[in-house]
Amino acid sequence: MPAVSKGDGMRGLAVFISDIRNCKSKEAEIKRINKELANIRSKFKGDKALDGYSKKKYVCKLLFIFLLGHDIDFGHMEAVNLLSSNKYTEKQIGYLFISVLVNSNSELIRLINNAIKNDLSSRNPTFMCLALHCIANVGSREMAEAFAGEIPRILVAGDTMDSVKQSAALCLLRLYRTSPDLVLMGEWTSRVVHLLNDQHMGVVTAAISLITCLSQKNPEEFKTCVSLAVSRLSRIVSSASTDLQDYTYYFVPAPWLSCKLLRLLQCYPPPEDGAVKGRLVECLETILNKAQEPPKSKKVQHSNAKNAILFEAIALIIHYDSEPNLLVRACNQLGQFLQHRETNLRYLALESMCTLASSEFSHEAVKTHIETVINALKTERDVSVRQRAADLLYAMCDRSNAKQIVAEMLSYLETADYSIREEMVLKVAILAEKYAVDYSWYVDTILNLIRIAGDYVSEEVWYRVIQIVINRDDVQGYAAKTVFEALQAPACHENMVKVGGYILGEFGNLIAGDPRSSPLVQFNLLHSKFHLCSVPTRALLLSAYIKFINLFPETKPTIQEVLRCDSQIRNSDVELQQRAVEYLKLSSIASTDVLATVLEEMPPFPERESSILAKLKKKKGPGAVSGNELEEGKREGGELNGAGERPGDSSAIGASNASTPSPSADLLGLRSAAPVSAAPPSAGSLLVDVFSEAGPAAPAAGANDDGFLRDLEPPTESSDSLLAEGPGDSDSAPPSVVSEDPAPPLPESDELLNKFVCKNNGVLFENQLLQIGVKSEYRQNLGRMYLFYGNKTSVQFVNFTTTVSCPGELQSQLNVQLKPVDPLVEGGAQVQQVINIECLTVFSDAPLLNIKFRYGGALQNLTLKLPVAINKFFQPTEMSSHDFFQRWKQLSQPQQEAQKIFKANHAMDTEVLKAKLLGLGTALLEKVDPNPDNFVCAGVIQTKAQQVGCLLRLEPNAQAQPGEQMYRLTLRSSKDTVAKRLCELLAEQF
Amino acid sequence: MQFMLLFSRQGKLRLQKWYVPLSDKEKKKITRELVQTVLARKPKMCSFLEWRDLKIVYKRYASLYFCCAIEDQDNELITLEIIHRYVELLDKYFGSVCELDIIFNFEKAYFILDEFLLGGEAQETSKKNVLKAIEQADLLQEVNYSLSLSLPHAVFMV
Fold first, then answer.
1. What residues in A contact B143, CB-CB < 8 Å?
2. What is the least distance, in Å, from the CA of A386 to any CA of chain B?
3. CA nearest neighbour of A560 among A514, A510, A523
4. How confident is the model at residue A924, as a pLDDT?
5. Helix (H, G, I), strand (E, B) or coil at A770
């Protein structure tokens, strides 16, 4: 036991600690502790009043027991009593106990707060500090309520001691972090900011943490701190290493304060005042210069302190991202660190360079270090440093070096640590896709990935390669050949079998000409893997086999033989058995034509962003992949025709026309045109009608009309409808109403609505958290809308509810029924909701869609307008020129016409205009208007109550200079409000 | 800084300071996980590692590991020097500090830390000033204060 010379020895405590240390086993320790607890309990309960010293000693023992990891359920009262002792050490122990063991026993908190209040007003700086430390350590809301008003006063009072100011500043910071609403700086703001000028360096050091936190939340109020911070920094940077006495640390003047000042400046854009900015740039240059000077000490503390400031300065330079000269100097400095003997510096240099790589000014400078970074990836002995190197390679990758970087990452993967393999795989997959110039390289890369690290290749990755191959016919043959070769390996990864099965099933015919890869050879190769695979893969292979029967009739007997054998047709797995039975039957009874139709090649996937990026983000946790990167991914993703959803799904085979039409099969890929003629018209396919992009102008009558109408039965008459509410229930509350009122519609909701006047599908709304896609279809006076809510985060949304309301008279004009939606939306997942709409009579407003959910703890509440406008219920009407003008004349009363003359917002492209007018839902009448530049349209709006005929004329002055191009839009209709409403809607479209 | 842990090479926790509100259960889980992670690292490895969404900065002094969790924006190197300054303070106060000093005088270790760091931020970086504050407190130890405010306190005295 060491001699305790300082402070107040508590012999009993020391003995107890020794006893504990001498315990030979956990059991002995527990026994000794229980004995002690019993002893303390009896002392506390005893009749004899304990003196302060004993109380302190026992409280301290309890604390020690708690810190050993045992539960303590008494002694709190005794600790609170110590707070009011006038012996400093007793008070101190009392506060320590409270700080470590506070619980939210409200009775106790009141007593504690009382004691704190007394100490705060004691004007004894030592006691005041103790009380402030306790508040800062506990930081509970009750304490904020009690003291948030008082502490700012203590902080800025002229007669407060420096040490108390320091504690007060950080105490306030802690309270602000837990209860920002209770800490109101208001009148104190300016005096707090001026603490930056305080003579006492310790006060500045403490106050600046508070100011930084406040500035992050209220930058405008605190912006005067910028010039003060710059001048303070400038004084420190230019001071000699001995000027600041005890605030100099291993020859570095005030390193903590310097770092904090640089950190504070990162809350703001570069100073606008030229003089301030000049001074700051000078500081940054001095810091960079100092890095080149020989060290004043060999101690690692000297170099750490100096470099801490340097890295913070570089962070500021990157934050400003406006001084190319400084950025490049920063990059060069970090380049030197890349080969430093200190592992810590290499690690930080790699980390910091990652952010430099994203600046346009320094991206090229970072790229010059590629060889060093690759070398780091190969030779660093610490996995966390290698991880940084891989991150940096990923960040510096662009079209010029993608092949080299991807090759290096691939070869690193072979020996990479298991902990980072999955992330590496995702990164390689993203880079390969993002920078692929030729797709054979892309296919090679992904197949290599599967070969090297098959276990770490997530579904997203192999789905993606299939999507890309399906969407790009120039690579299909190559892909078929390559997977065929890859499957030759005696032991190949199951993911390879999946990709191989899928691709050969689709494109095996492209390599079947070569006798070495004849249909039967291909089949035998795939089937040789069958028995080694899991059920989902076997299911996929069975689908590939039936596709083979279609592609290569000569394989039919062999494959039927396989399907027919007991291990398939009587397989204990239901999915496999069903597939075997159905495929066998299909191949035996269907004619070649039917077979060819059902088993047609997969249509291209709609374009959408790579889901791999989302996966990487999820893996790295929020914030790890910047929003920027996702944005970029989206942009780049556009270059490829890939969709993010699952191609390997069981419904994928002939999903365009096979059974189980699932609207969710298409998820969010709505932005672009749907696949062209995805299915043959004859297939009686509901799904095609439902999802084809063609507007209401598409063939209205047809063999499948019945089915369509049945599916779209009016909600009010639904007998077997899935709708929860019965007819006439228009005033019943929507399900699961949340207590909070719906938010007012977003300011941009009208703008969002305008996007959907001439189209039915697309992205209705998108923010950081949520994307809402919409698909809709209309027939007569009925409509059905599918909303797709996509959770863009990696965190689940809970209590997800949606409601639709029809404000005012809309309630009697439109009947809108919402099907319930799952209240839980998993991170990265998407849920679908169906809305049935019936137009009772003409209307002008749009229904409001309110969405509420909890993300983290926060309630999200947003209201949008549903993209339903009166024109959706148009039925196109063809008519001759003569008829048109006759009707036009009939509708000549002033209230029947609405006219608008407006400037063209877009180029006057005839084809685009035509498409928009068709999208409106009317018939576009050719050769009706004597002026061929003009457009005329006709249609009938179908409502339950009436039909409203409408005529439209759009006159562009195409010959005018761009910028002066105008339209005159005229609408006539038998009902005045309709002409006016349509005119408003349309005027925003051209 | 979100928390600081001191633990021995055998994985015994010697000091824990939490600057964010967490349940006891969560604290124990974090401690267990971090002690294991840090102890598994080899001597020459770098002092920083990513852990959940935090950065861990640690350094070993003799048989003790000092381990801090900081946020993404925080500076790793300056945190290393926070650790070092704390070690210096302990060293100066105890006179070449060893693990036993911290075990037997754990309350002092907490008091010194509170003078140096408060709410996870540096309060006073001058070694002299911190030690002055602690020594002043030690001088006060058995001095009986006759405070004008001592009367109302009596309410809470048993």
1. 87-88
2. 11
3. A523
4. 85
5. strand
